[in-house]
Amino acid sequence: METKLLRIAEFAKSDPKMKFTSLTHLLNEQSLIQCHHELPNKKATGVNGTTKEQYSENLKENIEDLVNRLKSKSYRPVPVRRMYIPKLNSDKKRPLGIPEHEDKVVQKGITKILNTIYENNFLDCSFGFRPNRNCHDALKILNYYIEKRSVNYIVDVDIKGFFDNVDHTWMMEFCKVE
């Protein structure tokens, strides 16, 4: 899958307006087994309680079945298990959705494909949820801008309940590449 993703990245970079219409073939047995192995061990389980270790016991059969369901368009993700974790320095709690292991495998595969296509479109100063970038990298670049460049203002924003309230129709339209 890596070679195919590199090719897709080249196409996306050479023609930012290119529309990719058929990428599900990349979610094959080999790529999904790789995604399974890349997922961390001993993470919280979804509603069915399936661990990575349990899924591994019949990995080949599980992945074959998953690929068949993806190809026949009968794959349906399981509803996430909702948990609430405490917010730092607050009495409030943050909702957290924990997917089933198999759904995490599919999400990882799709994430790889989408990152390949869209990563070239992001600015270097963008850090949120991007591969190989973290909070420390963001702080380093912020420090550089403050020390080395002319800064007139800094804005720190936390939009309350953004993902719960954003218009998803608008969001999907906004994400379209034309």
Automatic annotation (TrEMBL):
Keywords carried by this UniProt record: Nucleotidyltransferase, RNA-directed DNA polymerase, Transferase
Key word Transmembrane helix present: no
GO molecular function list: RNA-directed DNA polymerase activity
InterPro entries xrefs: DNA/RNA_pol_sf, GrpII_Intron_Splice-Mob/Def, RT_dom
Domain (Reverse transcriptase) ranges: 85-172
SUPFAM superfamilies assigned to the protein according to its UniProt record, in alphabetical order: DNA/RNA polymerases
Entry protein name: Reverse transcriptase domain-containing protein
